[in-house]
Amino acid sequence: MNNAVAAYLKDNHDRFLEALTSWLRIPSISMCEERTDDVRRAAAWAQQKLADIGFPLVEMIDTDGHPLVYAEWLDRPGQPTLLIYGHYDVQPVDPLEEWQSPPFEPTVRNGNLYARGAVDDKGQVMLVLAALEAWARAAGGLPVNVKILLEGEEEASGESIDAYVRSHAGRLRADASLICDTSMIGEKHPSLIVGLRGLLYTEITMQGARRDLHSGSFGGVAPNPIHALCLLISRLKGEDGVIRIPELAAAIPPPIEVEKRFWDTDPLELGDLLRREMGVDMLVGEAAFPPLERLGARPTLEVHGIRGGFTDSGAKTVIPALATAKVSMRLPAGVDPDDMFGWLKKAVRHYTPNGYRAEVNELAAGEGMVVSPDDPFIRVAVAALQAAYGVEPVFMREGGSLPAAALLNRVLQIPVLLMGFGLPDDVLYAPNERFSLAQFERDMFTVGDFLGRLRRQA
Prior knowledge:
Structural class: alpha+beta
CATH class of the largest domain: Alpha Beta
CATH topology of the largest domain: Aminopeptidase
Strand content: 15-25%
Number of strands: 18
Radius of gyration: 24 Å
């Protein structure tokens, strides 16, 4: 790594941490309408930070939702162009009473920085900005061409960035994209995410009688939509974890051999780690596939809630006329969410019990993605992580979805490097979200080294 860049990062570590703390104090909860002004303040903070670093072009882009922040530094002809993505919005903080310190008053405890957004994603964006500043100030400029796109709706709809990328693909053209918004296996085991599942989120409504009924007067002959929903869901996915939608089974692409070997052998015993992290005695799901394959490459069907009937305290013997279930599916990369929605509707029609009417509505959808571990930009990231951690990173597929990553991969046709530095116990969606200060410090250097290696291998 460039010695001047490394020295700058070391000398300015405390200042970078103070800057992150100031950003974390802004409650940029994109899903809360009353926080709209705060979300914009967080965008303005990022805009000013990029200008202070020295980016010649920095602008805030208004959208129908929350603003985007765009910047570019393009003075390295012949060098690759890297598009860096991140988000400045955060999750809601409920339940507030479970926080040991206020979520928007960043607090250091036991070597961690606690705050909403500490790891997802302000802390990880900040360490990238620190690396960029170090190159700009200590080395006289960035080693490669850089474009930056930050959004404020990752935790909400994501509609604004989707529309912007599709309509400004030429402006965003790059050779690769870097996203630091994922986690590592552990503090000593870096990983690169080379695959993300897609998402289909739906609402299934089951209709029985035309109105609620008394179970004494009608029980035994009246349809019960809650019971029908339970039957339907158990038919869509049985106790064995197998999803019984034939079109989906036929559409799942086979894994590459190196991934399959890793999943089958699980040399780091990640399956046991998952079990301990969840606090369960055993893992469930498709027994024919190892846990890591189930987690990152197999489809899922999960029920997030069922609404209907009487749920208050006390007793009320009502048979509801209507019941609704929130049901999501995680889709292997290569399975089109639009196709999946059609297959799901067909399966719901087939499995709905007699005497009921079912309706399926789509609430959200996004594609998955896969990047080859042999991609030249991935190999540069491997070298930087190996230099920082002393071991070669593990290639993983992330079970969750990151819509922006799939969007950039699909629209811009570029490899997306998912090089995140969160740890499995950072509880990013729950109370007491945190980011390891050791990770924050070390990985400023990791990203700085990656940028330098990217130039040398161009």
